[in-house]
Design goal:
single chain, mainly beta, four-stranded antiparallel beta sheet, 29 strands, globular
Length: 497
């Protein structure tokens, strides 16, 4: 079966599913990453200083002695990038946050940002998918933390599950965008059910949205269907009409079209239109950004599994070591698709079984040329005999699409100037983020890992204006960010999208 290493909480349920289907080689809780950038690379600005901020989770963190209660950390951008010196660390025990920190809540397991109340500051939707709500075990909880001149604080609202039940894992999938083009940020919320709830923009501070609609994602029913609902949601404008579209990542067993089936659901003046949905190439983590500069968002999906099952059965549209499928956008939505592996052109490395290339990805403009660039992680990469130490690759956009012939960069902890060392099971690249956190108009690189046996760390690698560099790099640790290192906090395993 394909090699998988569930690293995000999405959740015990997703871990169990992934492990059953793919051999589950890691014991860390939960499932996939998400990545969501539009053609303009929306990035969080929680404090309104016009410099990008980054929110990350420590969903396995101890809080007041409660294992796995979870925290989120907002790192605020500055002229010198991000560090733990300028941050907010928030849990359900923070004054104003709904609920109470309890063992296993996994607060921060899934997050999404946008200016939901229209006050000029980005806000953060934060899920606690494993929270017990009333008598509903793993019912899940969802809060929106308001941005302010001080950034994220405890001031927040509760967004209750409209149809609560046990094992609902409310909020396990989140995506923010303007799906109806009215200029207000909407929030799509998934759970273990097949229904996705879309909260219309215009949230007031009292927590009342502008309305709520539902969509039924076009995921096939039957034995191949993931019984726990969509695996992830990604928002971005693919057809260039000014409305945000939604990518629904399903998770199925092997089918004639691949390991899983993803769907493009376009935004319209009346919201998301399932009737116009189109099936996409496989992948369980998706990003949207304009790689070729034509004004349409391109869909990049990571298929980090290998080409065959353990019994040798081939998996369609896959490759040893993993691959990414790039589907270019057009006025009519998804158009042609190309695949990239570590054997493509001059992409660094070699496709080797179990690398996990495409496990996570993100997009941003590193060099300011107007083309979105792509970072792809391979957290199970072995380097010089060190197992699963991990590597990330930066590929640059161009008018012809992603450039695999020149300019690519690769970073591991053994790369000169990168903090740390290659160590077994570091999983460098468990999550990745390309955002401008210095205010210079160029996207910088942040890399999450499972450093120190699951404590986690975030590595900051800035852009020098033309490429990612190690000059000025630093590591941000949980212990300097107000996060306990008891247990496995998984600090930085999930970045907000």
């Amino acid at each position: 079966m394909p090699k998988r290493h569930p690293h995000h909480v999405r959740l015990a349920l997703a871990t169990a599913t992934a492990a059953a289907l793919t051999g589950g080689l890691l014991t860390f809780s939960a499932a996939t990453a998400t990545a969501a950038d539009s053609t303009r690379v929306p990035q969080a600005d929680f404090n309104g200083d016009h410099i990008g901020d980054v929110a990350l989770s420590a969903h396995g963190a101890y809080v007041s002695g409660h294992a796995g209660a979870g925290q989120i950390v907002a790192l605020y951008g500055s002229a010198t990038g991000v560090s733990s010196a300028k941050r907010s660390t928030i849990s359900q025990n923070t004054t104003g946050v709904p609920g109470t920190a309890e063992a296993g809540d996994a607060f921060g397991a899934e997050t999404a940002y946008a200016d939901f109340n229209g006050d000029g500051y980005d806000d953060l939707a934060v899920a606690s998918p494993s929270e017990k709500v009333g008598t509903d075990t793993n019912g899940g909880a969802l809060a929106i933390l308001w941005g302010s001149p001080s950034g994220l604080t405890g001031k927040s609202i509760d967004v209750p599950d409209p149809s609560p039940s046990s094992h609902d894992y409310w909020g396990k999938d989140l995506a923010a965008g303007d799906f109806d083009g009215d200029g207000k940020a909407d929030l799509a919320v998934g759970s273990s059910a097949s229904t996705i709830y879309v909260y219309k923009g215009g949230f007031g501070t009292s927590g009342t949205p502008g309305g709520r609609t539902t969509i039924k994602p076009p995921i096939q029913s039957g034995t191949n269907d993931n019984p726990y609902g969509p695996l992830s949601l990604t928002a971005g404008d693919v057809n260039g009409d000014g409305r945000t579209d939604l990518i629904v990542d399903g998770f199925e067993t092997q089918t004639s079209t691949g390991w899983n089936t993803n769907y493009y659901v376009p935004g319209t003046a009346s919201g998301l239109s399932v009737a116009s949905a189109k099936a996409l190439r496989p992948g369980i983590v998706t990003g949207i950004g304009d790689i070729n500069g034509d004004g349409f968002g391109d869909i990049v999906s990571g298929a980090g599994w290998d080409a065959t099952l353990d019994d040798g059965t081939p998996i369609p549209d896959s490759a040893n070591g993993g691959k990414v499928n790039i589907t270019y956008g057009s006025a009519s939505g998804p158009a042609g698709t190309t695949g990239v592996t570590q054997n493509s052109g001059s992409v660094p490395g070699t496709s080797e079984k179990g690398d996990g290339f495409g496990w996570d990805l993100d997009m941003g403009d590193v060099n300011g040329d107007g083309f979105q660039d792509l970072v792809v992680s391979a957290p199970d990469e072995d380097i010089d005999g060190v197992t699963n130490t991990g590597m990330v690759t930066v590929l640059y956009g161009s008018a012809a699409g992603v450039d695999v012939s020149s300019g690519a960069q690769a970073f591991a902890q053994s790369t000169a100037g990168v903090p740390g060392n290659d160590e077994k099971s570091d999983l460098f690249g468990a999550d990745v983020k390309l955002d401008d956190v210095t205010g210079d108009g160029r996207a910088d690189l942040l890399v999450g890992s499972y450093e120190n046996a699951g404590n986690g760390a975030v590595t900051y690698l800035p852009s020098n204006g033309s490429k990612i560099t190690t000059t000025g790099s630093r590591s941000v640790s949980p212990s300097t960010s107000g996060v306990s290192t008891s247990g496995t906090p998984q600090f930085g395993a999930v970045f907000a999208d």
